[in-house]
Every structure is written in structure tokens, then in C-alpha cells.
Design brief:
mainly beta; Lipocalin; 2 domains; ten-stranded antiparallel β-barrel; 10 strands
């Protein structure tokens, strides 16, 4: 190679180096175009205006076909200098043209969770919904009924059943045969409602007729359980309102036990309720965001209540050891509640809220002391008590 050619090449190289500006050559440090990440030896600059003609030529490999890969600080739009706007996003984004999360993390959604899209709007309808959790209910005190005489007479109303918990679940098959009607089954069970009282220096158990004994203490025990089942058809009239119609089953069991201390004499009264019938109601959605939903329901059932009572005595002279009676009558059940649902993913949500129920026309244990004769066994089942349950619930919801 001649000396003239060498000098010419050196001059061309010097011109190229001197022509390199912050808008030139930065794309060649991109990891996308190298097998091993390279570390630039200069400070990244903000390229705020359109690239010059020479810059576009030199940067063509960096901008095509994947766009501009030149380095820029956080928050800098690499498209603004080329006349590209967010008008397309403004037309497609339902939340007013939000182009997406800012660098450094997505904006928070409900309860500070990442937005990750509007789940209630984007996930689409589900075919099956399954819920499983727990219900926590308080039972009202039994109706007033005196048990004994004595220095401290006791009454059924002295029992405080308190709060108890039990399993709860439901399954909904949506859009049954593409009819816009859902089929839903629900069930929950709560047991363990109980109480205990002591009568000091009593001499009579106030049955019909009264049971007499020497003056001594009497201990009184109470326990109760309840179950509820439903099978409903649901029709959604709007995204905010659904009507409900179906069948309802309600079961209530209650026992009362008197122990006359130091004698071995006892009386046990068991009352059972098996109520079934038709119910109707509605559900409503009060508020809905991308993740959170608040709603409520109200249902009312007219039931045929098959009631039973059984009395068993031990070591009490002059009375029957066992007798029973049964019957049926109309009962009424009301059920209202409020719920809040937080959607975590398209298939998983958590749900909780408040529920209350009242049952009118129940057979409870204490009133049977007056309506059944312990000597002859004649009598009837008293079924005119009113019960009230209320409390909270919490469950997981899975959608397919």
C-alpha cells in the first residue's frame, strides 16, 4: 500500500471520529446486537429532537425493524422526536388514554395492588364458580320459659348461645344451556350453640304436671345446631341486578337437659325442625371497579316445617320414661346479606361480608315442657318460636 493511500485512510478515520456526536453510534452498545453485554464508556444523553439525516443513516440498523434502541434516561420518549403520538393508545385504552405503566413499576390499583389490567372487565364471563369458606353466626337467645322454682330460678332466656362457626360452600353453573340462566347450589352448617345454668335450692321442675323432689340444685344444659341448603335458578336482568327463584331447606336441632343433682333424676327434651319450600329474592351490585365489587342480596322463603319433639326421663317416679309427638306447620325464613369481593386473578378471588337470617315458626326445646304431659304423654308440639342468626362469612372464589 502506498504512502498516499495510508494518509488518505487516516484522514477518513479522523473525520469519522470527529463526526461522532451523542446522537451517533449509541445503538451499537445495545445488548440486543451483541452476544455479551457491553458497558459504554460515556454518559447517556437525552436525544430531544429529530435525528439529523446523517444520524438517521448511521442509526438505521438500531431503529429497524425494532424501533429506536438508543440509550435514554427514564421517562424519555424515544418516539416523540420522530413525530409519533399516543393517539392510537388514546383510542384503544378504556381508561382515558393511559399508555401503560411508568418506568419503575405499574401504578397501584385497588388496595395498592398492581393494576395488571382491569380484571372485572378483561377476564370475561366464567362458566363455573365455586366458593368455599366459613360462616360465623350468633344465635339469638331462646324464648322465655321458666325451668324451676328455687332460690335462683332459671329461665331458657338465660342461655346465651353466642357465636359459632361452620363450613360454607356454593357452586354456580352459569349460562345454563345458553339460556342466560344460572343454576346455583348453596349450603352451610353451624353447630355448637350451647349454654349452661344452675338453679340453687330448687324443689320443682316446671313440667306439666310439675316434677317434685327434695330441695337441691338443678343443672340445665342447652345445645343447638342448624343447616341450610338452597337450589336456585338465577336470571341476570342487568350487570347490576339478578333475580332468584328456587327451593330452600332449613334444619334446626335443639336439646334441653335437666339434671337434678344427687338423685340421678334427669329429663332430656329434643326438638327437631325439617323445613322445606320455595324461595324468591334478588341480588344487586352496588359498586364495581377493576378488582373490587360490593353487593348484597335479599331472599324470602315460605316453608313447610315438619316438627318433632321427644322427651326422655330417668329415675323420676310417676312419669313416662319416654314419649314423643310430631306435626307440621307453615314457617317463614328471611335471609339478607352484604358482600365484598376482591379479584386477585381471573380465576381467584377472596370474598367476605355480613349475613343475617330469621326463622319464624320454629319448634324449640323449652316450650315443650308445658305442651306435653309427662304422666300421660298427651300433648302437641309447640312450634311458635322465632330465631335470629347473624354474623360474618369469608371464602375463596374460583372461576373457570
Amino acid at each position: 500500500m502506498t504512502r498516499g493511500h495510508s494518509v488518505g485512510l487516516l484522514l477518513c478515520a479522523a473525520w469519522l471520529v470527529s463526526d461522532l456526536t451523542p446522537s451517533h453510534g449509541q445503538a451499537y452498545f445495545s445488548d440486543r446486537y451483541s452476544a455479551q453485554p457491553s458497558v459504554p464508556q460515556y454518559d447517556a444523553q437525552v436525544f430531544s429532537g429529530p435525528a439529523s439525516v446523517s444520524s438517521r443513516m448511521n442509526d438505521g440498523a438500531a431503529r429497524s425493524p425494532y424501533g429506536d434502541y438508543r440509550l435514554a434516561p427514564a421517562g424519555h420518549s424515544l418516539t416523540s422526536g420522530y413525530g409519533i403520538t399516543n393517539s392510537a393508545c388514546e383510542q384503544s385504552c378504556p381508561d382515558g388514554g393511559d399508555p401503560g405503566p411508568e418506568p419503575g413499576g405499574p401504578p397501584p390499583g385497588d388496595f395498592g395492588l398492581p393494576r395488571m389490567g382491569c380484571l372485572n372487565a378483561d377476564c370475561g364471563p366464567s362458566r363455573l364458580t365455586f366458593r368455599k369458606g366459613m360462616v360465623f353466626l350468633h344465635r339469638s337467645r331462646p324464648d322465655s320459659q321458666a325451668f324451676t322454682d328455687g332460690a335462683t330460678p332459671t329461665n331458657a332466656h338465660d342461655f346465651d348461645p353466642g357465636f359459632q362457626s361452620g363450613p360454607q360452600g356454593d357452586l354456580t353453573w352459569r349460562n345454563l344451556n345458553r339460556s342466560n340462566v344460572d343454576l346455583q347450589g348453596l349450603f352451610f352448617h353451624v353447630s355448637g350453640f350451647s349454654g349452661e345454668t344452675v338453679t340453687l335450692a330448687a324443689s320443682q321442675l316446671l313440667t306439666t304436671p310439675p316434677i317434685n323432689f327434695p330441695v337441691m340444685d338443678v343443672t340445665n344444659f342447652f345445645n343447638s345446631s342448624m343447616s341450610s341448603g338452597e337450589l336456585n335458578l338465577r336470571r341476570e336482568w342487568s350487570p347490576w341486578f339478578t333475580v332468584i327463584g328456587g327451593v330452600r331447606y332449613f334444619d334446626l336441632q335443639e336439646q334441653l337437659f335437666h339434671k337434678i343433682c344427687d338423685t340421678g333424676m334427669t329429663e332430656r327434651i329434643r326438638a327437631s325442625n325439617h323445613a322445606y319450600g320455595f324461595q324468591s329474592g334478588a341480588e344487586a351490585v352496588f359498586f364495581r371497579s377493576c378488582r373490587l365489587e360490593f353487593g348484597g342480596w335479599a331472599k324470602y322463603a315460605v316453608l313447610n316445617n315438619f316438627v318433632e319433639q321427644q322427651t326422655v326421663t330417668t329415675l323420676i317416679p310417676g312419669v313416662l320414661p319416654s314419649f314423643a309427638d310430631s306435626g307440621s306447620q307453615i314457617a317463614f325464613l328471611g335471609d339478607v346479606g352484604l358482600s365484598a369481593t376482591l379479584r386477585i386473578t381471573c380465576w381467584l378471588s377472596v370474598r367476605g361480608g355480613y349475613q343475617s337470617m330469621w326463622f319464624n315458626g320454629a319448634a324449640t326445646a323449652a316450650p315443650q315442657m308445658l305442651t306435653s304431659n309427662v304422666v300421660t304423654g298427651a300433648g302437641s308440639v309447640a312450634a311458635d318460636s322465632n330465631l335470629f342468626f347473624h354474623g360474618g362469612f369469608a371464602n375463596f372464589e374460583i372461576n373457570w
